[in-house]
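User: I'm new to structure prediction. If I give you an amino acid sequence, what do you actually give back? Let's try with this one:
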Amino acid sequence: MTTAVDTLTDALTRWLPRQRWYAAKDRTPDLVHVDRVTTLLDGDPTLLHVLVSVDGERYQLLLGRRASLPAALADAAILDTPDGVVYAATHDGELMSRLLGRLHGAVDGPVFEPEPGARIAFDLPARVVGVEQSNTSLIFGDRYILKLFRRVLPGAHPDVELHRALHSVGARHVARMLGTITTRVDGVPAALGILQEFLPDAQDGWTLATTDRAAFGDEATALGRALATVHTALACAFGPRNIAVNDLSDTADRLRRWFAALADVIPELAPHGPALRAAYDRLRDARGPFTLQRVHGDLHLGQALRAGGRWTLIDFEGEPGRPLAERNAARHPLQDVATMLRSFDYAAHHGGASDTAWAQRMRDAFCAGYAEVLADPRDQPVLLHAFELDKAVYEVAYERAHRPDWVGIPLGAITRILGTAS
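Assistant: Good question. You get back a string of structure tokens that encode the predicted 3D arrangement of the chain. For your 422 residues, that looks like this:
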């Protein structure tokens, strides 16, 4: 006999690949298993917190159930059952406005804990943010923003760990962390979400850069200064765990391993293989001393907010497609510089354009701002080229899975960077 869980599993197998935050949109799941269901609210509507395993990766879902769905929630429907319609509850403001209050002080399942000194209002209206990729965020009364990590990974989460460390040293250019949602998975603590102050008047860097390119030069310089300031704070906060090295052989090995793993499944990368490996190997000839430290890990224009006359960096979780241990490891700070430079290239292609001259001006302005605080990144072209290439390779894999029409942007960048580096 087919059980309710079996029916839900079948429905999720069809529903998951259509979600923006699902990591493997390019294939139908082979195995979906419901690991845990926690009832947060009973009645009509019902709110459920669900952990599911999908082909070996674990995700969290917030599911609602109503006897009938209002028209505003029709697109959120997942499954009709004899007990009502099961749907994606993050779209339901009535349920989401009660989420933090239900999780605060919970004993089993997910638990919300405010940060020391944080006073949280649990009666604010909630709405979902609809433009994200790998996570889902909720805004509470224009005061807080809750980011729900869709993929659940046991262990220290970089977004939580880095924000706590940055605030411990009084860092500027980061939003205040107000609380976390956690649970235990396989006996190990796992972060499910992070609550932060919301900046209601903020504009993200991508919007600013693509709306008025001519005026963005000064902003790029200020953004470079902000990143260098955050790097300085991270170096201070994690001082005892920073790593001093005289060469970057381990970094070169890591980049080669990542490329090898992708080259086997992405034929577009094959023609660039020898030149990419050579660019990574040139890191071995660079001589330090170098300091490896915690970094943002996935910095781009969409993760920089301009509000109150200053830049605020957000989303310190690193690239979601990388293993958690790798995202938590010490890296060279120029990794963050390189990923922002790649973001300028994407902005230069916005709207079908290919304004490489503008991208170069933004690169120079950003690096000049960084150099006002720390060493000029342009003085390390071998490192910058290698890190930019690594990011572009990652982008090729991402675009093939999520936005195939965009794959030409990182492929073109690989060709240009290799031409410069050779």
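You can read the tokens as a compact description of the fold. Here is one thing that stands out. The mean pLDDT is 93.
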